[in-house]
Amino acid sequence: MRKNSIKNIRINEEVLRYLSEIIRSEIKDPRINPMTSVVSVEVAPDLKTCKAYISVLGDVQSQKDTLTGLRNAEGYIRRSLAKNLNLRNTPQITFIIDQSIEYGVHMSHLIDEVNKNL
């Protein structure tokens, strides 16, 4: 299976949907910020590993706490994914903080400042 095959794209979408549902409603860890969202998911073609890009609305400490909480709940998340998804292998999840939304907001503010000065 190639990385950009239709099957892999569908698996990515399903893992994204269930992962965001699990983080939003099932995990009760107080370290995880309630404004946490799953931006994208990349499941390897062999279904062994998965990179989950997480966006957290908050300061740097909140992002670190959320990442720690998600890493501690990884076993529970993987078990819940195995229950909901019918895959040969349940992927090992690696959580990565996604800074692209914050970067976009920062660049938008810089552009607004330049336009004010003109």
What secondary-structure arrangement, pairings included, does this model have?
Layout: H1 6-26, E1 36-43, E2 49-56, H2 60-72, H3 74-84, E3 92-97, H4 100-117
Parallel strand pairs: 2-3
Antiparallel strand pairs: 1-2
Q: Radius of gyration, rounded?
A: 17 Å
Strand arrangement across the biggest beta sheet:
1-2-3
Helix content: 40-55%
Q: Please report the number of helical segments.
A: 4
Uncertain ranges: none
Shape: flat
- In N-to-C order, the SSE pattern is HEEHHEH
**In total, how many beta strands?**
3
Structure, explained:
This protein has four helices and three strands; from the N terminus they run αββααβα. The relative contact order is 0.17. The chain is α+β, with helices and mostly antiparallel strands and 118 residues long. Strands 1-2-3 form a three-stranded mixed beta sheet.
Summarize the structure.
The protein is of the alpha+beta class and 118 residues long. The protein has four helices and three strands, in the order αββααβα.
Key traits:
single chain; about 120 residues; alpha+beta; three-stranded mixed sheet; 4 helices; 3 strands; about 55% helix
